[in-house]
Specification:
By secondary structure, the protein is mainly alpha-helical. The protein has one domain: Arc Repressor Mutant, subunit A. The protein has 6 helices and 2 strands. It has helices at 5-19, 27-34, 38-50, 75-83, 100-103, 112-130; strands at 54-57, 63-66. Strands 1-2 form a two-stranded antiparallel ribbon. The protein is elongated, with a radius of gyration of 19 Å.
């Protein structure tokens, strides 16, 4: 498992919007202030919108906003929206899993590696679920960022 550059960017995008909860911010502003290329910003925002983490508003004053309360968004939510579920080994993948023991008729439940990797994967997922985006904000109070950046 690797935290990709796309996930790193997604963390920054969501944090940017969380610091401005209740405001609509244009994608170019997010890209510029978070040092993310425009094309990545738009692609990531599309994925975050589909997951319901962010929303968008069209028009002259359009842009993006955090669609959930910032205390309800976890790092795991963001990872799931951008890259899908965390799977640290091919034999643990929900879809298209591969295990040579399965191919030869062995029972997976007897594989000590599979058992331990499944436990580690569960711990990693739980750790990301416990980390709220609000824990990573530069400003903790929405009133601190009430300046319009449109």
């Amino acid at each position: 498992m690797r935290i990709t550059l796309e996930i790193d960017y997604a963390f920054r995008i969501v944090a940017h919007l969380a610091e401005r909860q209740g405001q609509v911010v244009g994608a170019p502003i997010i890209a510029d202030q978070e040092c993310i290329p425009d094309r990545f910003t738009l692609r990531i925002l599309r994925k975050l919108n589909l997951a319901g983490i962010t929303g968008s508003k069209r028009g002259a004053n359009g842009g993006y906003y955090l669609a959930k309360d910032r205390d309800d968004v976890t790092l795991y939510d963001i990872i799931l929206a951008v890259d899908g579920p965390i799977e640290i080994n091919r034999c643990l993948m929900a879809e298209n899993s591969f295990c040579s023991r399965r191919e030869k008729g062995h029972q997976i439940c007897n594989c000590p590696f599979h058992i331990k990797l499944e436990e580690i994967q569960g711990d990693v997922v739980e750790s990301f679920k416990q980390q709220k985006i609000s824990d990573f904000l530069r400003t903790k109070n929405p009133e601190e960022t009430a300046v319009d950046e449109s």
